[in-house]
């Protein structure tokens, strides 16, 4: 029985460790998950590559994607555009993989509105002090950027209740397993299995009439 993949959105404060978490999940379960690669107008950080972490675009190129309706959603975040290209997500879902979007809250809520079966996960560090420590520890951002990210986290905290599950990223491997279990549980939801249910009913009816 082929099953189309499900969409899961992972959000969380910048510095909560989402990137590391995603990497570990994909290493652990490479065949099951596909991570969507977003487009952004922000500059690449040290070590980031075009087409791997993001598609790094100019503002004009990004606005072209908006005009072509090639994005599932997009949002502004700390002075830059970020958006999810449609095509890859559709292809992976058709291939039966669960697709993960690592996006911020405005985008997450837009995806949930378009696709109500989407699972919304919110990743947090164990404490606010730990968040600041992780942001500073990256060593790639100016003090001003760190401040704006902390301010943004305070704003985002207001939306946490709109998510389905909270993932506390303390021990990485525990967090990976928890995330995997939640996404797999979503696959088993009755509401996402209507074609399986219809098939089963049809077969039972057929057997009854033999
Ligand atoms: P960063 O600049 O740290 O890589 O990402 C900043 C924020 O943008 C993060 O919260 C990240 O999840 C979010 N983000 C990344 N890609 C997308 C996207 O395609 N759409 C939206 N709405 N947010 C995104």
Protein described:
This protein is α/β, with parallel strands linked by helices. Helices cover 45% and strands 20% of the residues. The strands form two sheets. The protein has a five-stranded parallel β-sheet, with helices on both faces. It has a four-stranded mixed β-sheet with strand order 4-3-6-5. α1 (18-28) packs across α7. The two termini are 23 Å apart. The structure holds guanosine-5'-monophosphate. The site of guanosine-5'-monophosphate has 15 residues, from β5, β6 and α4.
Task: Lay out the secondary structure.
Blueprint: E1 7-12, H1 18-28, E2 33-35, E3 38-40, E4 54-56, H2 59-67, E5 71-77, E6 80-85, H3 86-94, E7 98-102, H4 105-114, E8 119-124, H5 128-138, H6 143-156, E9 165-168, H7 172-187, H8 194-208
Helix pairs in contact: 1-7
What is the makeup of the main sheet? 5 strands, parallel
Provide the spatial order of strands within the biggest beta sheet.
2-7-1-8-9
**Beta-strand residue fraction:** 15-25%
Structural class: alpha/beta
Query: How many extended strands?
Result: 9
Q: Give Rg in angstroms.
A: 19 Å
Mean pLDDT: 93
SS summary, helix count: 8
Query: End-to-end distance, in Å?
Result: 23 Å
What is the chain-wise order of helices and strands? EHEEEHEEHEHEHHEHH
Principal-axis shape equals: globular
Low-confidence regions: none
Q: What small ligands are held by the chains?
A: guanosine-5'-monophosphate
Share in helix: 40-55%
List keywords for this structure.
210 residues, binds guanosine-5'-monophosphate, alpha/beta, five-stranded parallel β-sheet, single chain, 8 helices
